[in-house]
């Protein structure tokens, strides 16, 4: 184990050194995503092979009742906690940064070797914390992960409306045709996919009323989206309705696939490929969704961007040298506002650290088989509730202007 840890540490240090030297100001946000991705990989590795190592720490292994599943969850929570502390500290440091003349702007984009060292030290440090602290973090992570999922839903709704408005604004027939084709294609998928799920999650000879309810509700929601969006009094469009319908169908599938493998209504319970696929897809989805959430939310005025942030495409230029008159003191360069909220950017990654811990630990439900990723009834209901919240927020975005005509939405 010590040899393996040494090799991993050596490889990580070499990788971090090469990555740090190649990060520029433009790619800084990708650098943070790289650190988050590294924490995910480390969490998974320790989850798979770290239980024997944690048993050697007396302040962690302080009870005879701890199972291997408990040690696996503990390893995931501790790596997540270190990652959370790193981004939470950065978020606090970046509060109030409004322009690029602020000294903290250089901290946001530079000092990568120091950041990587601090990140690694924090992750090592949390393995010396008492178990009670990680238990509290595990409880808080459930709420943080839920908030992260809510932010993702809001960003999805904003993205679909932006997509629709950008195509409509072109005011050309080919773009209207494209809107129709994409909308029809998404709606076909939104109804065909749940239909296929009936085969996998409602096997013959079994009483699977709960699964049938989830699938029927998903199809009803998809139909209701179209009805409400196309109502004459609603300023809606078919494209956002179709995209949200597909998303709800996908979330419903992820919820059903998270059912325990010994549940008779889970048709995927014999598939080893699904187990590996759930891990790979779950990790990739998390990394990509976090990056998009951070970039989108951090640069949106909806999500706490500095009020001085310029609109897309606008930049405040520095004063030209020829504007400085002879004999006068050199004028200070104009303060260029930051283009996104540094504070909220790091807060998204902190919340995502909590979400990744829940994903890898099955929402800390040790009663389930921890050999599988994101499996258990807690995971099922988190997914299903996410689907229903998405549906509720989308319907609200359509009907709110009718209910409150004097307010902007």
From TrEMBL:
Transmembrane segments: 75-95, 116-137, 143-163, 175-200, 212-230, 237-256, 276-295, 339-360, 380-404
Region span, Disordered: 300-332
Keyword Nucleus (UniProt): no
Location(s) in or outside the cell: Membrane
Annotated Gene Ontology cellular component terms: membrane
Keyword field: Membrane, Transmembrane, Transmembrane helix
Topological type in the membrane: Multi-pass membrane protein
Record-linked Pfam families: Serinc (PF03348)
Family listed: Belongs to the TDE1 family.
The protein's name in its UniProt record: Serine incorporator 3
Origin organism lineage: Eukaryota, Viridiplantae, Streptophyta, Embryophyta, Tracheophyta
């Amino acid at each position: 184990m010590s040899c393996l840890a040494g090799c991993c540490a050596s490889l990580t240090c070499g990788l971090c050194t090469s990555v740090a030297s190649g990060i520029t100001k433009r790619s800084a946000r990708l650098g943070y995503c790289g650190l988050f991705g590294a924490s995910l990989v480390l969490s998974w590795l320790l989850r798979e092979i770290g239980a024997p190592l944690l048993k050697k720490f007396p302040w962690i292994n302080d009870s005879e009742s701890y199972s291997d599943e408990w040690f696996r969850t503990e390893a995931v929570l501790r790596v997540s906690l270190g990652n959370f502390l790193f981004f939470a500290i950065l978020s606090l440091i970046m509060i109030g940064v409004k322009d690029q003349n602020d000294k903290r702007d250089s901290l946001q984009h530079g000092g990568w070797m120091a950041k990587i060292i601090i990140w690694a030290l924090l992750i090592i440090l949390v393995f010396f914390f008492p178990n009670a602290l990680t238990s509290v973090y595990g409880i808080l992570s459930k709420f943080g992960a839920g908030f992260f999922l809510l932010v993702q839903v809001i960003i999805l709704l904003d993205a679909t409306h932006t997509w629709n408005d950008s195509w409509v604004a072109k005011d050309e027939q080919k773009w209207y045709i494209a809107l129709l084709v994409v909308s029809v294609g998404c709606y076909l998928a939104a109804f065909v996919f749940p239909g296929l799920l009936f085969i996998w999650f409602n096997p013959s000879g079994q009483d699977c009323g709960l699964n049938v309810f989830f699938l029927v509700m998903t199809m009803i929601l998809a139909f209701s989206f179209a009805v409400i969006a196309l109502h004459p009094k609603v300023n809606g469009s078919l494209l956002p309705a179709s995209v949200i319908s597909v998303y709800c169908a996908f979330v419903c599938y992820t919820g059903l696939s998270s059912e325990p493998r010994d549940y008779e209504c889970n048709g995927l319970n014999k598939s080893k490929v699904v187990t590996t696929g759930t891990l790979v897809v779950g990790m990739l989805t998390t990394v990509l969704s976090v990056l998009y959430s951070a970039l989108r939310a951090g640069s949106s005025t909806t999500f706490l961007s500095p009020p001085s942030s310029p609109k897309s495409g606008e930049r405040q230029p520095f004063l030209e040298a020829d504007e400085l008159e002879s004999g006068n003191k050199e004028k200070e360069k104009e303060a260029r506002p930051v283009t996104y909220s540094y504070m909220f950017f790091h807060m998204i990654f902190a919340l995502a650290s909590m979400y990744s811990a829940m994903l890898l630990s099955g929402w800390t439900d040790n009663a389930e088989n921890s050999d599988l990723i994101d499996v258990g009834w807690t995971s099922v209901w988190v997914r299903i509730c996410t689907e229903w919240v998405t549906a509720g927020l989308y319907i609200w975005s359509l009907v709110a202007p009718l209910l409150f005509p004097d307010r902007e939405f």
